[in-house]
């Protein structure tokens, strides 16, 4: 599974040369806040994530690009539990210039189809920083439902925030489509 083409994006296998994009964006204060990153990164660390951490048997990761091969972000399924038919979803589109263009919606649609159809998952979860109201609204629009709150479970810039647990079930996704 090297590449999946959508109508606006391509999900392709992550490459070590993608590390520069992620190192730059993952060090931006707003991205660190939204994604819960607590330490700065660099290209070497991001290459290591791409080449080792994202190659675990219980995960699948993609770089999101446009049709001109410009990197838009990344997405993945992680902590896949086949026996329980559960997994977690991750997506990061860090550049504000590439947000609100439908790329995230299409990437999540592809990933949910993959989770439910290819990997036979029944439940896909995502965690969201409560102060990230744009992300909360976005996931609700996709069909995710809030299922729990870790009160003050997130600390950033000397402020506590709730951490919101969301999920979508197979039958809800099929109904949404």
Q: What would you note in describing this structure?
A:
The structure is a single chain. With 177 residues, this protein is an alpha+beta fold. Helices cover 32% and strands 34% of the residues. The protein has helices spanning 19-26, 29-35, 43-51, 103-118, 133-142, 170-176; strands spanning 3-5, 10-12, 60-65, 71-81, 86-92, 123-129, 145-156, 159-169. The protein has an 8-stranded mixed beta sheet. Helix 1 (19-26) packs across helix 3 (43-51). The longest helix is centred in the middle third of the chain and has 16 residues, at 103-118.
Helix content: 25-40%
Structural class from helices and strands?
alpha+beta
Major sheet description: 8 strands, mixed
Low-confidence segments, ≥5 residues, pLDDT <50?
none
Give the C-alpha Rg.
16 Å
Number of helices: 6
* Strand neighbour order, sheet with most strands: 1-2-3-4-5-6-8-7
What distance separates the N and C termini? 24 Å
Shape: globular
Please give the number of β-strands: 8
Order of helices and strands: EEHHHEEEHEHEEH
Kindly estimate the percentage of residues that lie in beta strands according to DSSP.
25-35%
Mean pLDDT: 92
């Amino acid at each position: 599974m090297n590449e999946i083409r959508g109508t606006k994006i391509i999900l392709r296998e992550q490459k070590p040369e993608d590390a520069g994009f992620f190192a730059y964006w993952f060090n931006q204060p707003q991205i660190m806040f939204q994604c819960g990153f607590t330490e700065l990164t660099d290209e070497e660390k991001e290459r290591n994530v791409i080449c080792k951490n994202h190659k675990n048997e219980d995960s699948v990761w993609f770089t999101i690009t446009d049709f001109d091969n410009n990197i838009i972000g990344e997405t993945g399924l992680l902590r896949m539990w086949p026996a329980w038919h559960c997994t977690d979803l991750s997506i990061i589109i860090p550049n504000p210039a590439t947000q609100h263009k439908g790329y995230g919606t299409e990437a999540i649609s592809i990933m949910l189809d993959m989770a439910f159809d290819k990997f036979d998952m029944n439940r896909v979860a995502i965690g969201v920083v409560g102060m990230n109201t744009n992300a909360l609204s976005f996931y609700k629009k996709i069909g995710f439902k809030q299922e729990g709150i870790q009160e003050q479970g997130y600390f950033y810039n000397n402020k506590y925030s709730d951490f919101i647990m969301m999920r979508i079930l197979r039958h809800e996704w099929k109904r949404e489509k």
